[in-house]
């Protein structure tokens, strides 16, 4: 490892060192406010370094890339960590979370996500995926006195461990078949050893199962609603955005790195995308709990992403990256509204609790509506442009049938998102909930600005993303 | 006249038409203090928009073909998407109708007490979206689609929050129906865009470019089908109309005016502007089919209107029936019938808007919309009843009143190219007379229900709503020439190259 490597790793190093320092400080010093402020500062510094430092030409230790693509996601996940920390301050204080540990775990998971988004070897993929999943195991059940949280943590842990097993075994098979961990080669190596090819493909199938667990593709999605419901709302936000987005970015890295070598997996991915969109949509329809509804909605969104990944075209990859960005802000915004309306007595999850809130809390009602409509793909929001580029890429790549299914799923999604919006504005009486604080409103403002900006003037980001695709 | 336009080439009049109502809507939302201020703010906004569109009408309404005004800027270069607005004679009339009816809608919504700022804001957003639909023509299909969708949500909220008893169901149904159509259109749009990009190598969403795409007949039918599904649901043509009576009868008064006067017209406008010119062969081959649907709608809806007991539903079905005649005129595919159809779109907007306004005024006095519980209104509120009679007669096409000119042009034009269709359509007009006279008879004459108390006749605000509408109704009937003038050029151009 040379100095150049270290420099290339700088954003992640800042996150990890900052997290470790805050963890140590937190052991003696329990005041949440300075600790969270420190965490936000660390995340922002990491984002700035990732954004301005010139990208290093080399791979880091043959495991991680520091190409612009990885840098983009390092910026995104660091910003996400900062926003989630801002969101968590009151929430964590009211529940007596150990601030040092909480802050450092969020930063650790952001570091893991940043690494995963640039993984160039199966080992790097495995290490980074496990490192942030480990942080999330703890975060999901961080609220110790809440047994829904404990249940969610256990579910996530058990299923996550199974997925890890699948992935480890799959990687072993791939290594046996191709003789390398390095990513484009591991796929291309399959071509060389013809008689080992079935084993290699089986290995990729197993890795796909593990990935399916992480980003909750149907039929590996069963943990999602329970874990979303039980985890603390800011952690659910991280789970829904960063942990899925990072895996999505890693998929783009893997698939884009070795064009034309994964044709055998296409029917499998096609099936997964179809099932994910259909089952996710149908399950979301009857939900009466907002967090469960968002869980199923996140399932459907991963189906959209797969739809655009399938053609294996640069347009498809750019579309996925753009969509992930929009989805991150929209989803974060929705969970931020839930967080900011929560108080010590709990989170408003049932839809009945949301009746008429659009009038009592106009800002948060409007932000939630904007986020949900963006998730649905309403024109003028980023979600529309995102879906437009996704579906255009899918149709162009010859996956018209799947694109039609995706559009039908969007139609269904309007039904369940709109139901929430009508609940927000459809009734005159409303319950009194927490008025929220300035930090939380700042997060909401960031999310809603991003959604509208990307909906009205997406050109700069689209241009930027087109240059990133490896 | 044209020197005026060239003298001020830089001023973005069209963006102003979209931006004014949007700005008004935001102001309404931001100032949350008093309902009264919001009403005045909304009225001022709609009046300003009306003034701009009147000015454009006066300066540009002389019937030249081609674009009268055009604004164009790069938007998303990577996908060949541009921000282009353009105005021709047809959109000019639609813009004028939009601005006029929204002023009326604001006045009708004046007595609304609940959540006035939000209500006015939604009404103004709707106006902005409609302006976008009528202006985003030349370049950007995407912009058209944006506005097409953007006007959907305010309407859903207007129905879903301020509507009558069955509002929630009607709102969701309206939304899903419209959205199903729009998504079909979106797929067709993307497919067309990709085909064009594959053929030329330069992606573009410009209407003029896409019209040059080489398509096989099958492709053309499929894409035409995608576009027409969206427009047919919106218009609505008969097998796709079931959302409309619910939406119209459950929506608040101002929403009904908007929905019937303007939103339904966007479907027809979409056919004229996009579906027909983009897919000329498919259009030519499906004209008889379109005419059959139109005739079916004309009779089916008229028959249903005759059977209803709810006055709003009668008017809803009468709208479907009238729009059947409009579509028939379009299917006849000649200049006379097209001018008649477009004129009928405008007059129908004015007349039906006025009818819904009067019904809302009656309803606020009697508290019911069941025909059986009304009657004898002429004795109680003579002026209001007189207005209702005037608009009802205009609606059934009495010579000298608004709808007559349009209807006669449609029938004449249709008779010229397809005599059979015109003959088949004639009894439809008799049907219209039947259900409208039943409506008038049941409401205005006959014995008054015993339990009715005293009712006040028109207030000043109501006079202000009805007088301009009545003047327009008579004017459009006696001297429609100024409104036909801007159509001459564009209609000829749109029909060019086809039978």
Structural topology:
The complex is a heterodimer of chains A (470) and B (499).
Chain A: H1 3-8, H2 10-28, H3 32-52, E1 59-60, E2 64-65, H4 68-94, H5 99-116, H6 122-140, H7 147-178, H8 183-192, H9 197-214, H10 223-230, H11 233-257, H12 266-284, H13 290-309, H14 314-341, H15 357-360, H16 362-376, H17 382-396, H18 400-425, H19 438-456, H20 459-468
Antiparallel strand pairs in A: 1-2
Chain B: H1 2-7, H2 13-30, H3 35-60, E1 69-76, E2 81-87, H4 89-108, H5 116-135, H6 141-150, H7 152-162, H8 167-200, H9 207-210, H10 217-234, H11 243-250, H12 253-278, H13 280-307, H14 311-332, H15 335-366, H16 377-380, H17 382-395, H18 402-417, H19 419-444, H20 460-478, H21 481-484, H22 488-495
Antiparallel strand pairs in B: 1-2
Would you write up a description of this structure?
The complex is a heterodimer of chains A (470) and B (499). Chain A contains 20 helices and two strands. With 470 residues, chain A is an all-alpha fold. Mean pLDDT of chain B is 84; it is low at 1-8. Chain B has a domain at 286-487. Chain B has 22 helices and two strands. In chain B, strands 1-2 form a two-stranded antiparallel ribbon. The interface between A and B is large, with 35 and 36 residues.
